[in-house]
Amino acid sequence: MKEIKNNIYYCGLNDCDRKIFDELIPLEHGTSYNSYLVKGCAKIAVIDTMYPPMTSQYLQNLDADGVTKVDYIIANHGEQDHSGSISALLEKYPDAVVLTNSKVASNIKSMLHVPENKIREVVDGEEISLGDKTLKFIFAPGVHWPDTMFTYIKEDNVIFTCDFLGAHYTFENLFAVESEELEKSAKRYYAEIMMPFRIMCKKYTAMIKGMNVDMIMPSHGPIHNKPEYILNLYEKWTSDKPENLVVMPYVSMYNSTKEMIDYLSEKLEQKGIKTFKFDIVKDDLGDLAMALVDSATIVLGTSMVLANAHPAAVNIAYLASVLRPKAKFGALIGSYGWGGNLFGLIGELLKPLNLDVIEPLTVKGKPSAVEFDRLDDIAVSIFEKHKSSGLL
Ligand code: FEO
Hints:
Layout: E1 2-5, E2 8-10, E3 13-15, E4 20-21, E5 25-26, E6 31-33, E7 36-39, E8 44-47, H1 55-64, E9 72-74, H2 80-83, H3 86-92, E10 97-100, H4 102-112, E11 119-121, E12 127-129, E13 134-139, E14 149-153, E15 158-162, H5 180-194, H6 198-211, E16 215-218, H7 228-238, E17 243-250, H8 256-270, E18 274-279, H9 285-294, E19 295-305, E20 308-309, H10 311-323, E21 329-336, H11 344-350, E22 356-357, E23 361-364, H12 369-388
Parallel strand pairs: 8-9, 9-10, 10-11, 15-16, 17-18, 17-19, 19-21, 21-22, 21-23
Antiparallel strand pairs: 1-2, 2-7, 3-6, 4-5, 7-8, 12-13, 13-14, 14-15, 19-20
Helix pairs in contact: 5-7, 5-9, 6-7, 8-12, 10-11
The chain binds MU-OXO-diiron (FEO).
C-alpha cells in the first residue's frame, strides 16, 4: 500500500490482462480499479472497493498491509467494478458501515445484496469527520450514473471523483505522467463512458477547476497531482464547438462504398477538411469513439445486406446515437445490389443526434461518373457547412 499524501493510501489493483471493458471497449493498456484508504486520527475509511474477480487479492493485500480496522466504506458509485467487494469487506471488517447516497444505497442493496442495516445514507454536502480529516460528499449525478458522487477531503484539498476524469490505464507509480498514450486512454475512456453526458461533464469540470484541488483521485487510471492536465483535456473535449473534422465509418462488401468514401475523403482533404476513415469491420472501435469526440460531421457509408443497411453499419449508427457526440452535420452514402431501403433504419437510429443531414447518395453497384459528381457536391456542401460554422 503506497502513501499518496498525509495518511491517504492507494490500495487498488492493476488489471493488466483485461482486454475489453463492458464487452464493448477494447483496452490498449488494461485498467486499474482504484481503492483508497484514508486514516484519520479517530476513524479509518476506504473509498471505493474492488472489481469482484479481484476481491481475494484485494483483501490479501489489506491483510499484508496490516489493515485491521475499517470504520467507513465510502461508495461513490454503485457499479460493480467499484462496489462489487463491499460485502466481502463488510465480512472482513464487521464494524464497518457503508456511507453513500440513497441512489447508490438502493443499487447496492438490490444488485449486490449489501445488507440494509450496514448502510448509512448521506445527503449532498454532508461532512463526516475521521478526527483530523473531514470527508465531504458532493453529489454528481450523471457522470456517469445517476448515483455518482464525489468525496472531498477538506484538510488535504483532494477529491475522489470515481469514474469521472479516469482512464483505463495501468500504472506502477501513482501519479499521472503526461504522455500521448495516457491522453489517448483518457480520451477513449471519455468517449465511451462520459461523452453521452457531455453537458454534465462540462459542469463538473468547471466545478472542480473552481475548487483548485491539489489532487484528483479517480477510480480508474493514475492519480492527477497536476489536476489542470486532465481538467484542460476535459474542457477541450466537452466544449460545444467541434473541430474541422469529418469522421467516415464505412462497411463495404464489394469495394463500391469504400471507393466512394475514399473519393469523398480526398475531396474534403483538398478543401482543407481533416477526415478520419474507419473500416467498421476491421478497425478498433475505440479509435472511432475518439474521433467522434471532436468531429463536426459524420459520413456513414454502407453496403446493403438483404433489403437493409449492413448490420455492422446499423450497429455504428446505434452506437453513435447513444454516445451522443457533438457533431452537427451528417451524410449517408452507400451501394446496393437488387434493391431495398438502404438508409431507412440508419436514418431512424441517427435521429436523436439532430444532425443537419445532406441528401443521401445511394448507388446501384459501382459508382459512375454521375455519382462521383454527386460526391463532389457533397464535399462542397460539407465545406460550406464547416465554413459557415467557423470551423475553416
Ligand atoms: Fe468504473 Fe461506472 O464504473
